[in-house]
Here is the input.
Amino acid sequence: MIYNKKKRKMVAVPILEKNIHQTMDWHYTIEEECGWEEENQRKAFAALRVVLHELRDLLPVENAIQLSAQLPLIIRGLFFENWSTRSGRPKIRKKEYLLASVEEGLSSYSEIDGEEVIRGVLRVLSDKVSEGEWRKVIAVFPAEIRDLLG
Amino acid sequence: MENKHIFEKTIQEAHVWLKDICTYSKLDTQDKALIVLRVVLHEFRDNLTLKNMANLSAEFPLLIKGIFFESWKPADMALIQKFPKEKENYYFKESIAEKLQKYPEIHADEAILAVFKTIGKHIARGEVEKLRKILPPEILTYWFKATTER
Here is the structure.
């Protein structure tokens, strides 16, 4: 194990380090797609969290699992955070509920436009996962929410 | 630096898990600990019900959660509500030994115990007890040993 005194952290497991970089990349892309000028990792993380959780609960569980397979470790962990199997079938969501839920999740940040955030995060997601997988996800979206994607 | 908080935290937590596995198994690097964690965690997961998976993983750090759900392919969602592997000719330890074949220095017994001890250390007692009630006999023997002796 290498202990880097200057950085004061362990750098022994390259795959974990790789994951940090991947996750950071997601965040920069989210900031870009949401049009946020100021760099704020926490805000991007919060946006990713709330949209991922809404998306997960919107999808049939098989779709959710398949989608999760394509995410980097940390983001997959985030995807399954507070995951409950109690709600076996996907909730029927109306656009306004989705927007409200996203805006509530981000209420401690300024400059939040729910639609923009949803669109931004989903655009990043569609970019990062395979085309085939994304097509499957889109196919099971409620129409109202599909419209959000423009 | 404050922006990196969440990632640094989950990486640090993962390092603690890997360090614990090293301690419990006498493995000398976190790379090997990660291999062991992956193999045992996945095999363990595939013996749990969906509900147990959700409850157990809720207590894991993000990155470990990501590993837990990695390459998870429930071929049949109806099946997983029972024990998919409660079938003839399936042995937990043998299955793990097979996957660790490439690493002759790692023994399946030690690997299982080290990972179970680590999980037991980091999750709530109640969750440990809950799992005791539902695990198949072979796995229960390890689980009991690891979570009692630690």
Observations:
- The longest strand of chain A covers residues 3-4.
- Chain A touches chain B through 36 residues (CB under 8 Å).
